């Protein structure tokens, strides 16, 4: 781990960097572009061939059957089913509170403006499989999609070499309200959802995390196919702000839970206490020694940083410049410090609020902007699955109210037809009087 004691502000630019965030190489882009072209040409057959090549899975049908989902449910232990149901309920509770009421405003006499929120019709959820089947991500995406009212919620997730999808993933999809499940992963899954194949419907927006090929595929889906995306994404990250009263064991556990996401994850400690920093280093080493993924987590810690700054004011400046995906404020006055946070994906207040609570079951969404995108992007929420349409209605009184303003502005922009559209209506009203 990197340790930095009281760095000067002119040294911050290096400390704010995400060294593990590699730009997508030309080779990655080339491979993904080739995948898109092949899927566009050969549809399901291309996707099945890529699945056989990359995962070893051989399936006659990409779509997962109800019988497969029923079987999966029987394989999930009762305790896990109860945990999934409890987390889903909390996520539903928080996201249901985000439903927007219609807006209706008379902006001027005879001029009524309205806004209505409508669900995106068809959305695609990408859920990684592999060593860490992220069934929690299904809840974070599927539950809000259901609450928003999306007509069709399809999910893509890779099968194992035996052709079967992880049972917990299938069970969580059923709980979340996913309508169609497809056993496919990687760039080919994103391509299938963006383009549409014989069995996979074309979606209007794609959500979910993935490796560099999936991320490149999402970008290509947007630029080449006009498919909307949830947000730009990179490796996961956590920043912990700690004062002298913070428990180093708590800080270390948050560092290591983040490192568990992958070797390119990044954890950062900001503290004004040299004692806390030193104790945290020792605690990280102690906890890491007994964790099963220690080797992989050690790679993440290689580009993680523990930084001592001179004051909480300086710490806030650094945190806002970094714009972390997860921000844990482990201080006695967490609320007052949080009031100064301007850029973060999700904030965890106080020593008892572990990042893992938000990752699974507190109710907030764990699909968050990374790589500094929190300066401009929000995490996934109910709005992510909706679109807003505005309406306006002018009465004759409204025409009289706006005519002069509209005609003056249109003529000033050199758009005579715009002016005439209002002028003709004004003349019609004058004739009817």
Kindly name the structural category. alpha/beta
Strand tally, please?
14
Portion in helices: 40-55%
Please provide the ordered H/E string of secondary-structure elements.
EHHHHEEEHEHEHEHEEHEHHEHEHEHEHH
**Tally of DSSP helical segments:** 16
Distance between the termini: 81 Å
Largest sheet: 6 strands, parallel
So what's the overall shape? Answer: globular
Estimated radius of gyration:
26 Å
Please state the oligomeric state of the protein chains shown: single chain
**Overall mean confidence score, pLDDT:** 94
Content of β-strand: 15-25%
Low confidence ranges: none
As laid out across the biggest beta sheet, the strand order is 1-11-10-9-12-13
Notes on the protein architecture:
It is a single chain. By secondary structure, the chain is of the alpha/beta class. It has helices spanning 12-15, 26-55, 66-75, 78-96, 135-148, 167-176, 186-195, 212-225, 248-259, 274-288, 294-301, 312-322, 334-338, 355-360, 396-412, 416-432, and strands at residues 2-5, 103-108, 111-119, 122-126, 152-157, 180-183, 205-207, 228-229, 237-242, 266-271, 305-308, 326-330, 346-349, 386-394. It has a six-stranded parallel β-sheet, with helices on both faces. The protein has a five-stranded parallel β-sheet with strand order 6-5-4-7-8, with helices on both faces. Strand 2 and strand 3 (111-119) form a beta hairpin. It is globular and about 90 Å long.
